[in-house]
Amino acid sequence: AGSSSHARNLGAGDGRRSSDDGACVGFAAASADANIALVKYWGKADERLILPRSSSLSLTLDGLSTRTEVRFLETPGNDAQVKDDDLVMRDTLTIDGKPQSGRALERVSGFLDIVRSMAGLEGTVANVASWNTVPYGAGLASSASAFAALAAAASRAAGLWLSPRELSRLARRGSGSACRSVFGGLVRWNAGVSDETSYAEPIDGSKLNLAIVVVSVSEGVKPLSSREAMERTVATSPLYDAWIRSCAKDMEEAMKAVEYGDLELLGRVTEANSMGMHSTMMTARPPILYWLPQSVAILRAVQGIRADGVGAWSTMDAGPNVKVLVDAGDALSVADELKERVPGCKVSVHMSGHAVRFEECD
Ligand code: DP6
């Protein structure tokens, strides 16, 4: 990768030395789609490497994606014992045009340090700019698409040409669920026991034609990040060990359902697994409850639609929105039905999404 006409001026904008003072040593852009877990990842065995306690299964979703540009710059000034902090060049990050600082920037910088050390680019800083394509609000912006796109763009900008498996392992270091967004369609994340053995891979979903109806009830900021909630659950929920045992069984059944094209079985496992995960949260101390009254109304509406003979199964993550697993052919009618049964909810339909996309930069 080299400097390119796509590169934009992403100046630091905080009064420090402009990042444009440094020579560009690499630029790349990439996009990734979000994913929704059918069998969830909830709890880490290793916090630093982000190794999960159990394997998980997800569907990558069309129409919920992140596009990210990364530019690495040389920092001659940083090498020469600069005493004045204001003169030190730092990484910069903008999300949807807004400059970021604090935790968001620290998390991205920490991730870029991994890429820099892999590529021997320790003496560089990066300008990162990211855009999310979400149909409405911020409630669905996901760390999965964000870190998959960042891993792809940053590794390529740093001159690393990683295999999809290596890219999945790298994305995992940013956010666990991001390792699954490297691939399209149905994806399995093998928990593994080490950095080398914990990666995602696509699985053959050709006997199914899945879609997800996202039912959004709130676009507000989460009361507690999934990272913190997960940590508290592992540390304090008396149900946690049972949850891990049930995940192994759910993975087995879900894989069988995919192999035989049994949507009914996959749906049952999906809904039960999500309820199990939320049970561990509710029994954490202090308890964690992401559900809002409208979430419960939607869960019940999904049961009602099913009772009326249409295949639809719910799943929820670390927030109040409900995602509904359906056959792609039923997606629009289920979406209409949900709008009717739960007035005021916002609904969007997502088909199976795609693997990470790199942009040609030169
Ligand atoms: C509920 O991947 O966001 O969505 O690894 O700490 O970044 P970190 O967590 P994250 O957790 C996702 C949890 C989940 C379930 C899932 O996607 O499997």
* Ligand inventory: ligand DP6
Biggest sheet layout:
8 strands, mixed
Q: What is the average of the pLDDT values?
A: 90
Structural class: alpha+beta
> How many strands?
14
N- to C-terminal separation?
Answer: 7 Å
Strand content: 25-35%
Question: Which blocks of ≥5 consecutive residues have pLDDT under 50?
Answer: 1-18
Rg on CA atoms, Å:
21 Å
The secondary-structure element order is EEEEHEEHEHHEEEHHHHEEHEE
**Global shape:** globular
Helix content: 25-40%
Number of helices: 9
EC number: 4.1.1.33
GO biological process, one term: isopentenyl diphosphate biosynthetic process, mevalonate pathway
Enzyme class: lyase
Protein name: diphosphomevalonate decarboxylase
Set out the fold topology.
Layout: E1 24-39, E2 44-46, E3 51-52, E4 56-74, H1 76-79, E5 92-95, E6 98-99, H2 102-119, E7 124-133, H3 143-157, H4 164-174, E8 186-190, E9 199-202, E10 210-216, H5 226-236, H6 240-260, H7 263-282, H8 293-307, E11 312-316, E12 322-327, H9 331-341, E13 346-351, E14 357-358
Parallel strand pairs: 5-7
Antiparallel strand pairs: 1-4, 1-14, 2-3, 4-7, 4-8, 5-6, 8-9, 10-12, 10-13, 11-12
Residues 37, 40-42, 50, 56, 143, 175-177, 226-227, 230, 317-318 line the site of ligand DP6.
